[in-house]
Amino acid sequence: MNILVIGGGGREHAIIKSIKKSPLCGKIYCLPGNGGIAFESECHDINAKDISAITAFSTEKNVDFAIVAPDDPLVLGAVDALEAAGIPCFGPSKAAAIIEGSKAFSKDLMQKYGIPTAGYKTFDNADDAIAYISAQNSYPTVIKADGLALGKGVIIAENFGDAKRAVESIMLDRAFGDSGNLVVIEEFLQGMEVSVLAFTDGRTIIPMVSSMDHKRALDGDKGLNTGGMGTVAPNPYYTNSIADECMERIFIPTMNAMNSEGRTFKGCLYFGLILTDKGPKVIEYNCRFGDPETQVVLPLLESDLLEIMLAVSKERLSEAKVSFKDGAACCVIIASGGYPESYERGKVIDFGDITESDELLIYHAGTKKGDNRAVYTSGGRVLGVTATAKCLSEAVDNAYKAAKKIKFDGAFYRNDIGKKALDYLN
Ligand code: AMP
Ligand code: GLY
């Protein structure tokens, strides 16, 4: 089969490395791809949001199956456009992708169907939102822009001044454009965070191995929020009994709720959970694989990813084999100096004497291939170094041993990825 993957980050590199193992996989195209993906597929410089160009490309290249990985094209309706052109896809329709595209939608969905989440109220003007925050007078409080905001649309305010500034920045200064037409003010929840990605075709939902993201830029969860500086899987806080509770109270009810709304979700549904003392609650849904969660989840997948994706698209997920290896994985993100604020690009990357294997994978995110075989930095998160092993401590050690060998001007990574998970296990 000719496969098209849309996107160009570490998540897409992990998806491509995984589907390549399938006997069903033929030629792979990636739009736009990156410096690492270019070594294993044919990349073309078409933006992931340019849906008409993507559709024309797919028709011209006789693409048999498309995997739409990032949030933007999904929310814009890439799957609807490709399927209208006769190309089956892995990924939700526009109607279903709204579960990530609008936080007001997802909060209302959870409220309507009794899915546990933080208390909230939605506002369409800044004055009312600020008056509500003042009347609540409870801090920290959480302020969320309704729409997509590159992972920056959530502000945790410690006092009234910060909360007011957050509302003004979203609604009046329009820091995230139309994504700030509505704002959600949410109760602050305390607890350990867990990411669970799940395959679903609207009839069956199969959670993958759980994981833990590390969102802040610096060690000890200090510094600014980022797209994610590293992950481990499985997440030890997510016990079997919590998993059973989530299946019953969150995963199946969410799938059914989307069906009841006439918005059947097919693809990978991401549950961002927080384990509170009143049980697990949803802090966010994403309509796609997480990044960098995918970089620890897929290396532990034993089954054929492409076969699962095809089964989801045909609404036959119940017939697919989905199993994960025992053992653990750790991904350390190597970023450009200055990330998540401004950083320089174009630094040549020295990979030292690293050799990849099933137990050590180097996923490219913000990289570009030079004319020779050299690879240069081109983004904030540059590489994800994933190690898998029988136990988490070995996976963490091996990921760091490899990360130390990789050098470029200004490179940095967190030194404590997996620490919270290991503390819990010990
Ligand atoms: P999101 O973009 O929705 O994933 O939010 C980014 C981060 O903000 C989450 O990973 C949490 O760490 C935090 N967060 C979001 N909502 C809440 C909440 N209601 N209570 C506490 N922390 C939250
Ligand atoms: N790592 C969080 C996300 O993909 O949204």
Can you offer a commentary on this structure?
Helix 1 (10-19) links the parallel strand 1 and strand 2 (28-32). The chain has a five-stranded parallel sheet, sandwiched between helices. The chain is of the alpha+beta class and 426 residues long. Helix 7 packs antiparallel against helix 8. The chain has 13 helices and 22 strands. It is globular and about 60 Å long. Helix content is 31%, strand content 25%. The chain has three domains: 3-91, Rossmann fold; 125-181, ATP-grasp fold, A domain (Dna Ligase, domain 1); 192-425, D-amino Acid Aminotransferase, Chain A, domain 1. The termini are far apart.
Q: What ligands does this structure carry?
A: adenosine monophosphate, glycine
Based on CA atoms alone, the radius of gyration comes out at: 21 Å
Distance between the termini: 46 Å
At CATH level 3, the topology of the largest domain is D-amino Acid Aminotransferase, Chain A, domain 1
CATH superfamily of the largest domain: ATP-grasp fold, B domain
Task: State the share of residues found in helices, binned by percent.
Answer: 25-40%
Give the integer mean of the pLDDT values.
97
Rough shape? globular
Find the structural class using helix and strand composition: alpha+beta
Largest sheet: 5 strands, parallel
Low-confidence stretches: none
Q: How does CATH name the architecture of the largest domain?
A: 2-Layer Sandwich
Quaternary status of these chains? single chain
Q: How many beta-strand elements?
A: 22
How many structural domains? 3
User: How large a portion of the residues is in β-strands, by DSSP E?
Assistant: 25-35%
Q: Under the CATH scheme, which class of the largest domain?
A: Alpha Beta
Question: How many helical elements?
Answer: 13
Strand order of the largest sheet: 3-2-1-4-5
